[in-house]
Design goal:
mainly alpha
Length: 84
């Protein structure tokens, strides 16, 4: 695909200097920048989606109410430890 972009003179000059110094074509630079921009704009996955993809969901085999009754389970565990 061919793309034409109008740049202000100072930006065009800086862009040409940048490309010459790094021995890159203008197309290479624009392609890299466009790919980075699109990657940043892509919808991000939620922590839940990431955990699901990594197989982390469903791997816990404890009480189902642990998050809401953490204090109860902690005290219970401490009592059991004292009585050993």
């Amino acid at each position: 695909m061919t793309l034409t972009v109008k740049l202000p003179e100072d930006l065009e000059r800086d862009f040409e200097i940048h490309c010459k110094l790094r021995r890159l074509t203008k197309s290479e630079v624009v392609t890299k920048l466009l790919a980075q921009y699109l990657a940043l704009q892509a919808p991000k996955k939620t922590p839940h989606q990431l955990a699901e993809e990594l197989g982390l969901i469903g791997g816990f085999s404890g009480p189902r109410d642990l998050s809401s009754n953490a204090r109860y389970y902690l005290r219970k565990r401490l009592r059991e430890k004292r009585h050993r």
